[in-house]
Specification:
Blueprint (H helix, E strand, L loop, with lengths): L30 H15 L6 E5 L5 H7 L4 E6 L2 H10 L5 E5 L11 E7 L8 H11 E12 L1 H4 L18 H9 L4 E9 L1 H11 L2 H8 L2 H11 L5 E4 L8 E7 L1
Parallel strand pairs: 1-2, 1-4, 2-3, 4-5
Antiparallel strand pairs: 5-8, 6-7, 6-8
Helix pairs in contact: 1-2
């Protein structure tokens, strides 16, 4: 069995394979990254109750489905034909639709209460143009939610970016806030941090756990248990100490 292909998909739904460009549910080895993304979708979902929402660059579609549990209508848009077909077949709800389209051009001006754009702005060549486009899609009082990884915790110390070949640019907290404030009048930035057992694990690493599990030869059985057991509750969003955050989430309003 390929450990990097989705498992146990519903009949007729083609499984997706990990490429490094997007994260996926139903891949045990990917569970850390999936939960790290999912917790942000759940946080936003609690804030878009009764709204019209666009999930831009929705990928596999799991986040659009989360948003549709509380929103009035959700449209998930992605430019990858395999991801689009998978999402369309996998997540079927009356208030949820999926379309194929480009980040820079899709959507009707003034038609949305919220635009969600997670872990993708680091991939685009002209982020200001993309944010301007999202701004144009908002109805009065609307909000754009944008997340991106923290350069300082993703890349090696002193590096301009990580080795991820799909990332055009990665941001520090102040740079990300400045980017969003170029387009929006009100910007709040939160950081995503480890909590509960992930915080304990990080502390254990600081105390030498990597040497211990290798010496005891329990690395594989430990992580075969630990990685699938990670939950969204093992992450937390907060506004302080952003330089140490894993990811940033900007809440942007006109």
């Amino acid at each position: 069995m390929n450990l990097y292909v989705q498992q146990n998909q519903p009949p007729g739904v083609p499984p997706l394979q990990l490429t490094g460009e997007r994260t996926l549910p139903d891949v045990p080895a990917e569970n850390y990254w999936f939960r790290r993304h999912l917790v942000v979708y759940e946080w936003i979902g609690a804030r878009v109750i009764g709204m019209r929402v666009l999930d831009m660059a929705c990928g596999e579609g799991y986040g659009s489905e989360v948003l549709s549990r509380s929103a009035t209508a959700v449209l998930g848009v992605d430019g990858n034909p395999e991801a689009h077909e998978h999402a369309r077949l996998r997540y079927v709800r009356q208030n949820l639709q999926f379309e194929w389209g480009a980040v820079e051009t899709y959507g009707e001006p003034g038609s949305l209460d919220a635009v969600v754009f997670l872990q993708t702005i680091e991939h685009v060549q002209d982020p200001v143009a993309v944010l301007e486009h999202f701004k144009s899609l908002l109805a009065p009082g609307g909000t754009v939610y944008v997340s991106t990884p923290n350069l300082l915790t993703l890349a090696p110390p002193g590096a301009a970016k990580s080795s991820n070949p799909w990332h055009v640019r990665e941001y520090r907290a102040a740079e990300f806030r400045e980017l969003c404030a170029t387009v929006f009048g009100e910007v709040e930035v939160l950081g995503l941090f480890h909590a509960r057992k992930l915080a304990v694990h990080a502390r254990a690493i600081d105390l030498g756990w990597d040497r211990v599990h290798k010496a005891l030869r329990v690395t594989k059985p430990f992580y075969d248990w630990f990685t699938p057991a990670i939950a969204t509750s093992d992450f937390a969003l907060r506004a302080e100490k952003l330089d140490a955050a894993l990811d940033f989430l900007a809440i942007c309003r006109v």
